[in-house]
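During the no-cost extension, the postdoctoral fellow (Dr. R.K.) reprocessed legacy sequence entries with the updated structure-token encoder. One reprocessed record is reproduced below for audit purposes.
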Amino acid sequence: MLTKGDDYPIHQTAEPVAYAGTDRNFYDRYFFNGYSPDGRLYFAVAFGVYPHLNIADAHFAVILDGVEHCLHASKVLHSERLDLQVGPIRIEVVEPLQVLKVTVDGEGLAADITFTGRAFPIEEPRFTRRMGPRAFMDYTRLTQNVRCEGFVSADGAWRPLPPGTVGTRDRSWGVRPVGAPDPQPPVPLDPALMGFFWQWTPLNFSQESIFFHVNADPQGVPWNTRAVVLPDGAGQGEGLVTEAARMTGVELIPGTRHARGGTLEIPMDEGLATITFQPILTFLMRGIGYSGAWRHGAYKGELVVEREAIDLAAADLAAPENVHIQALSKVTLTRPGGAQEDGLGIFEQLIAGPYKPYGLG
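Re-encoded structure tokens follow.
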């Protein structure tokens, strides 16, 4: 089957673009977020293509006055992987790896946002995780902090993005669980693989970006981790890169799996830098398809669009669908020698199953 993508040099197998290998869980996804300098406005976008499920879906969410307003859309892909629109949500690649645009217009929600990279994207180390003989995850992600321009609107209330609005975008592709849950997991189940621990902290400072992530097993042993310090305008492969950074001092909010704060330690040539986190806003990732009824890759029909409103004050943060969050945080960087700088960024958290270092069974 030939599609529009076959006229572009993007093939990754000997087959037409419509056929992305043989794993039904193959996916290709965009993610964006942004937040105003005062932390009062937060928005996020997710757009996923699932070639073997023949589905594409898109999500937009914005937090206004304590409510997470969400717009979900899903369609049958018909194997056209370059059609970057699902219902009222559209992605435009203006300048690859530097400028992308998102437009939204449906169900009372609207947005027109341009995301411009602060430096060349970083390539995170490949995420490969097996459950016995089966590949549970095998994907690559690029991540880029961005400056954001445009507007968001909910029910006619138009809000321009204030100067200094920043955020993060990423692109990931490969294999991870999507669509309907697997009815037959591999056996025997290895207790060491019965949990999933994830922290991700893309941070924006005045002249640089700092990134950290860690996947760890239930005993707290990292299986994928890295930190990057990247000055504005840096090119590919530049900046400080280390796998020795670690998050310390984490205390969980009682009754939840969310941290009330923490301290990131990053070793540098001059000594140890620390970054303290003060969460100020919680975004529920289910609002853009990470779990819940609108989970990524779920079949809804030829084209289905739905709006959802989540009252964050009333949400049960201990409920399974609310375990995965992004905590918008004020952050303070203390450099070796004592100089300090304030910034703003994300403390993404997902702890599923046991995690011994935090006393979770």
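Residues 27-175+192-358 form a domain with the AttH-like fold fold (CATH 2.40.370.10). The chain has a mean pLDDT of 95. The remaining legacy entries will be reprocessed before the final report is submitted.
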